[in-house]
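Page 47, continued from p. 46.
Same chain as before, 156 aa.
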Amino acid sequence: MADTSPAPDRTTPGALLFVCGMNAIRSPMAEIIARSILPAGTYIASAGVRPGERDPFVDTVLAEIGLDLGSRQPQTLDELEDDFFDVIVTLAPEAHHRALELTRSNAVEVIYWPTPDPTVATGTRERILDAYREVRDMLERRIRSGKGWSRTPSGG
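Result:
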């Protein structure tokens, strides 16, 4: 399989944090996908606004694309060991509000990527997995595009 990773450039942040509600689905998915795509020197982490539990559907849909969370467990913003990031990407409204609150006096770029919550999906196991796959694929496309690391309009 050909490497389709974006070439490292000055638009890729050096330190990146993904934040969602409980760090159980969207932000850990984004973290692991970003680690597989972005340059090796990029520091990538994820956290949630409040405590959460690991979601087994995340493991399933990541395994489908050859990725794995390993022993990683959800963590809150308060539990982060590092607190310096060039860019914070929020994936849920509550995460965006909290990140803006936390960075009020910092020169950190806080960007909101509206991302659906797949836990609202109902029906068969396959239907629920499809909702998780949609989120996974959306995050992968967004990260792989190399765009979206700034609030500055890109004219597109």
